Amino acid sequence: MTNEIFPCLWFDGDGKAAADFYCETFGGKITVDTQMVINIELFGQKLMILDAGPQFQKNASISFTVLCESVDELKKCWEILVKDGKILLELAEQPWSELYGWVRDKFGVTWQLSINAKKEVQRIVPTLMFLHENNGKAAEAMIFYTDIFPDSKIGSILKYGDGDKAEENPENIQHAHFEIDGYTLFCMDYSYNHPFDFNEGISIVVMTDSQEETDLYWNGLTADGGKESMCGWLKDKFGVSWQIVPKKLLELMNGEDHAKGAKVMQAMMTMQKIIISDLETAYNS
């Protein structure tokens, strides 16, 4: 059971410009281009852009670590990202990378650029920052997520320990790696009181093959204080936003019969968790 998992970034009228910008920066391509939804492929990975209005703003609670194969590649990407953006951490050598930097681009997306020459790795890795009441819960979150998804594991964990960040709890996580259904994410705890937290500006999409899988992830992620939203959206107990989307929804919506597809869209808009049988009823009505 391998589901398609990828990030979704919320934009307000500038989604196409952002898609072009990221394809230029990382050598990618646009694979779907509609008025509201744009899919891009970067390093063979899918990212979704949702151009849906001003409701949500992206922030650094979820950033994207880019594992570059060389210093030259990193510097090339860095120079494009910093133009009209803001440097959060200057490029410098770090214990984990011969060159590393953190930047917020002109569209409000934050990127951590690092060196990893292994060609088989996932090149873009969503990185979750656990702040405020979530600070200290990164380890709990990794267990929570890997218990829900198949083919999951917790990898390397670096704690703050007694190092140079004396303000941090030594047991908190400075950097950790985990996988859900084979998809890699990083996470960290951070005690600084940033004026932001997890929101819908950046969400994680899980495409499912059946109602059984849809129920499994929906029920698992909304457990212990998560919140159901509309149209397949939910927030887990840490506030991270997810979209649990049956592949059947796209199949029915995007078929040759546009009138039937519109009925499916209307039915989906009334749902919280997406019910495939109800979509099929709408399609055949």
UniProtKB/TrEMBL annotation:
<protein>
    <submittedName>
        <fullName>3-demethylubiquinone-9 3-methyltransferase</fullName>
    </submittedName>
</protein>
<dbReference type="Pfam" id="PF06983">
    <property type="entry name" value="3-dmu-9_3-mt"/>
</dbReference>
<dbReference type="InterPro" id="IPR029068">
    <property type="entry name" value="Glyas_Bleomycin-R_OHBP_Dase"/>
</dbReference>
<feature type="domain" description="PhnB-like">
    <location>
        <begin position="4"/>
        <end position="113"/>
    </location>
</feature>
<feature type="domain" description="PhnB-like">
    <location>
        <begin position="122"/>
        <end position="245"/>
    </location>
</feature>
<dbReference type="InterPro" id="IPR028973">
    <property type="entry name" value="PhnB-like"/>
</dbReference>
